Amino acid sequence: MNLDFTAIIPSIPYILKGIGVTLQIAIGASIIGFIVGILLALCKIGKVSILRWFADFYTSIFRGTPLVLQLMIIYYAVPQLLDIQIEPVPTAIIAFGLNSGAYISEIIRAGINAVDKGQMEAAQALGIPYAKMMKDIIIPQAVKNILPSLVNEFITLNKETAVVTVISALDIMRRAYIVGGSTYRYLEPLLFAGVIYYIMTLVLTFLGRRIEKGMRRSD
């Protein structure tokens, strides 16, 4: 096997700079996804039929089509329709956030349904408004129940950001590919990128478990 990592040593700092871009996309998309997910989940469990239909339709579209397709549609369609050019990183944050919201909505909906119905009945008996009840009583309990699933979603999102290479966002994968093109050795930089993703996954998994344990102690 002809492996020679010394050829990419000068390019290692360049590849490592992609970690910041990857995390920027993952964190930004997670925030958007969480907000969208909560709104969709509330629509799904609500009593307004048109909102339930919209939430189910939204989820069906974003879960039923490839993420890379959604990414490319947003990147290429917005300039065509609105004559506005969006940079690759903001495009990725929007696309991943909207996609993640569809999955998070199902996670949150399941978490809300898992909360003891007595909590909601007691809040209603006390005359607590629906919005305040959901914000202060139901959703905080649901988040504790679904925290492992949310952490897994963030880890998955962090790895899936690698597809932003198709719109030339300078994340870890794109930088590794550029190094491969400049050195005519693709295997070494791609393997190095794989190691970075693996280490990031281990770190995020560890942090997720620490947060989960901390929340359990607070109960």
Give a written overview of the molecule:
The protein is mostly helical and 219 residues long. Helices cover 80% and strands 0% of the residues. It is built from nine helices and no strands. The longest helix has 32 residues, at 187-218. It is globular and about 70 Å long. The model has no long low-confidence stretch (mean pLDDT 89).
Task: Summarize it.
With 219 residues, the protein is an all-alpha fold. Helix content is 80%, strand content 0%.
| Extended strand count | 0
**Helicity level, as a percent range?**
over 70%
Count of discrete alpha- or pi-helical segments spanning 4 or more residues:
9
Describe the main β-sheet briefly.
Answer: none
Distance, first to last CA: 54 Å
Give the helix/strand class. Answer: mainly alpha
Mean pLDDT: 89
Secondary-structure element pattern, one letter each: HHHHHHHHH
Overall 3D shape: globular
> What's the alpha carbon Rg, rounded to whole Å?
21 Å
Low-confidence stretches: none
Strand percentage lies at: under 5%
